[in-house]
Structure formats: C-alpha cells, structure tokens
Amino acid sequence: MPAVPRFSIATRIRSQRSCPGRRSTRLERALIRFCLSPLSRMKMLLKMLVVIGVLVGIGTVGYKPARTYWEERHRVKWETAAIVRGDVTRYVNSTGSVRPVQSVLVGSVVSGPIEELNVDFNDEVKKGDVLATIDPRLFKADVARDEATLATRKAELERIEAELVQANNSYQRGQKLYTKKVGFLSDSEMDALVLEVKSLEAQLKVAHAMIQQAEASLENSQANLNYCEITAPVDGVIIDRKIDPGQTLAASFQTPELFIVAPDLRDKVHVFASVDEADIGLVQKAQAETRPVTFTVDAHPDELFSGEIEQIRVSSVANQNVVTYPVVIVTSNPDLKLLPGMTASISFEVDSISDVPKLPNAALRFFPDDVQWVHESDRHLIDGSMWSTKRDRENEERQLSAAEKAEKRRVRNKRHVWVVDGKWLRAVEIETGLSESGFTELKSGALSVGDLLVTGEEVKK
Predict the structure, then answer these.
(1) pLDDT at 387
(2) Domain 78-87+356-457, classified CATH 1.20.1260.10, yes or no
(3) Per DSSP, what are the bridge partners of residue 358?
(4) 3-state secondary structure the chain
(5) Per-residue pLDDT tens digits for 310-331
(6) What's the CA angle centered on 101, arms 330 and 337, to 5 degrees?
(7) How far apart are CA 62 and CA 147, in angstroms?
(8) pLDDT tens for residues 364-395?
C-alpha cells in the first residue's frame, strides 16, 4: 500500500478541524504531532520496542512454569489401591434348592368318597394320627357278610363232625356184628358203613378248608375297613395335601396320593446344589477337610445359614453340554425358616490362607488403553509384539499334550500389575495365589505391603 504524505494527512485533519461544531479527539491530536514531528515519531517507536521487549521477556521467563502447569493440569491421573496383609479364603459358588430329608407319600388302598379330612397344610402330625376317613359303609357290609359266612362254615363243620361221630358208631357196631356171626351183615352193607365214614372224614377236611377261606375273606374285608382310616406313617409335617372333602378316590389301577409328610423337618433339611464339573474336585477336597458351607435364601436375605457337605453324588446331569454334579448339604432347621422348595445361594469354602500380602483384584483387571502412558521398556506388553493371534493360540492349545496343558495351567498365575513411575506406568511381574471376591494372594514379585497399584483412570470432575 503506497505511503500517504504527511502534509496530506495534516491537511485532511486541519480541514476536519475547520468544520464548525466538531472537536478533535486525543487520537487525532497525537496523530498530528506524530505526523508533524520526526522526533516524536522516534520516541513513539522506541516506546513500542521497549514494551514489546518487556512482553517477550515476561513470556520467556514464564513459558516453562506455564508449560509445566499446563502439562500437570492435563496429565492423566490414576486411581490406586494399596497392597495389604490379611487372610484369603477361596469359595466355589453355586445355587440349589431346599428339600426335606425324606418325603413320605401317603396314599389310599381302597376306593370311596372322602368322609372326613382332619389335617391341612403345615400341620404337625404324630405316627398313627388319623389324617382322613373314607366312607366305610360298603366295607362294613363286607365284614358283616364275611362274618356270617364264617359262622355258616363253622356250623357246617359241627354238622359234619356230628355225622362223622354217628357214622363211626354205626361202623363199630356193624364191625362187631360182622365178626360175631357170619351172614348177619352182608359185605355190601359193611362196605357202605366204611364208605360213609371215609366220606364224612373228607367232608370234615373240606369244612376246615372252607372255614380257613372264610376267615381269610373276613380278614381281607376287615383290613379294607381299617384302610378307610388314612393314618400318618411317621412323625412329621404335612407339606402337601392333594385331596378335598367329598372327593372320591379310585384306587383300582394306581394308588392315589393323598398327602406328603416330611419327617424331622425341624431337626434337619437338605440343600441340593448343582456344582460344575470344573469345581467338583475342589468341593471333594473341601468335604475331605470338613470345611463349612454357607448359604442364603431370598426369604431371609440378611441371615446366613451354615451346613456341611453330606454327600457328593456320582450321577452327573448334562444340560446343554454343561455337566454338573449334585451335592447334598445338611443343615439344622429349628425355626422352620427353611421351607421345601426355597432357592439357596451357596458358597463352598474350598481353601484358605492366613496373614499373607494380598492385592486388590481391580489391579489385576487394569490394563492401559494407550501405549503413550506406558514406559518404553514395558510397551511390548500392550503393543501386541509379544502376543499371538487368537487363532494361533487355539492351534497351539490343540497341539499340546495333556502334560503340557497341565503345566501351562500351573504357571498361568504369573501376571502383571501396573505402578505409577513419575509420569509413566511401569509393569511389575508377579505370581498370584488364592483368590477371593475382592483380593488375591501375592505369592511373589518385587512388591511389598503398602505399595500402590493402579486400578483405573481417575475420573475428571
């Protein structure tokens, strides 16, 4: 842009000042002096240079602190947790259901309408208590009929016995006459006397058999009459009732179930747990060491129940390629808080160790997201240079022998955790031991109690 002559600027300003009613501003007066005086212009330039020099000096002196402050303000901050000393207990968790130790099904042998129903759900009964009564009229009639039949058979026996006595007397008198005088009784008459005695003896045997048959029939009818009273076979609690008053039972082809009685429900109950095949070995070890089992139920979420392993059954259950084994836990139930069918959340104590350094599990789960945060010597742990692809690892696993796989599982406890080293993150190799919900045992590594481990990035507020 071409320079404007000084006289033209001054002339323009003078012309503006000559305008009536207009005042000159401070800027205009300064500009007039600058344009009209070279010395003033030099002074002005010198002042500007001094100001610029001062500003440059201040910027030079404050740059490093400002940069340090800026980096500190925007540097990533890490959440940390300390290594502590304490006990570590390992658990195997599972779910199960509460069941009575024994469930006794009470049925009916005879058919007929229910006449009386004496118990209801949750009633406690004693052995021999009458639970229900079936209409006994038909069975009483059967008993009366069989009693009459038995009386008839006995009377028939008495008649045959009397006739047999008479026949024996006739035979003896005939025998005397036959031997005393020849021809007094013919041979046919003597044979008739003998045959009559033998016939009555046979009838006597038949009469005894008929009496036995009548007695058996009467006993059967009496038993059916007794079966009209449904009694409790054991002491226990009625946990299920499957009949109502007036209901008709038909026991012709299958015994109908009327009640389910749970004996000793207050003494103890069973909790059936399904344990994964990967954990059943640990549970077997816990049973051998008599370790306790704890569980909770939804009905009493604040109460912890305890028990012990009573049985590990060898009959496996496969469901969608998942194999589990039933484990039976026994526990007391004095207050009847544990009811059949309740769902239990079970924890098996399988191992424990006391007074060891332990680190938070969050430190084991942490892994840096950005390689720029990591010290250069540890960047190979996260940049993938020491990793193989998933497919390569799977192929290697298939080619390993059983012994090699077992050895690989034994050394899988070697891990890395991260500590803050200045502005970098540094990896520390460790070996872990037992693990619980919040902590894991530190078996070896260049760490000690009180050291801080990185658990995550601190959230900026």
Answers:
(1) 45
(2) no
(3) 84, 441
(4) CCCCCHHHHHHHHHHHHCCCCCCCCHHHHHHHHHHHCHHHHHHHHHHHHHHHHHHHHHHHHHHHHHHHHHHHHHCCCEEEEECEEEEEEEEEEEEEEEEECCCEEEECCCCEEEEEECCCCCCEECCCCEEEEECCHHHHHHHHHHHHHHHHHHHHHHHHHHHHHHHHHHHHHHHHHHHHCCCCCCHHHHHHHHHHHHHHHHHHHHHHHHHHHHHHHHHHHHHHHHCCEEECCCCEEEEEECCCCCCEECCCCCCCEEEEEECCCCCCEEEEEEEECCCHHHHHHHHHCCCCEEEEECCEEEEEEEEEEEEECCCCEEECCEEEEEEEEEECCCCCCCCCCCEEEEEEEEEEEEEEEEEEHHHHHCCCCCHHHECHHHHHHCCCCCCCCHHHHHHHHHHCCHHHHHHHHHCCCEEEEEEEECCEEEEEEEEEEEECCCEEEEEEECCCCCCEEEEEECCCC
(5) 999 999 999 888 999 999 999 9
(6) 70
(7) 125
(8) 989 888 888 888 888 888 765 444 444 555 55
- For the chain, which residues make up each domain, given as ranges? 6-72, 78-87+356-457, 136-227
CB 259 within 8 A of CB 242: yes
Burial (CB count <10 Å: 0-12, 13-18, 19+), residue 372? exposed
Residue whose C-alpha is closest to residue 329's, from 314, 317, 342, 346: 346
Tokens (6 digits) for 246? 């007036």
User: What's the token pair of residue 109?
Assistant: 């042998």
Length of the chain: 461
Mean pLDDT of 288-294: 94
Q: How far is CA 425 from the centre of its chain?
A: 41
Nearest CA to 342 out of 294, 295, 299 is that of 299
Output the CA torsion sign for 450, 453, 456, 461: positive
Q: What pLDDT is recorded for position 449?
A: 92
Stronger pLDDT, 191 or 313, i.e. the higher one: 313
The enclosing H or E element of 201 equals: helix 187-226
Mean pLDDT of the residues in the chain: 83
Domain 136-227, what fold? Helix Hairpins (1.10.287)
Question: What gap in Å lies between CA 163 and CA 169, rounded to an integer?
Answer: 10
Q: How far apart are CA 312 and CA 329, in angstroms?
A: 9
Facing residues of 356 across strands?
86
Smallest CA-to-CA distance from 260 within 292, 286, 233 is with: 233
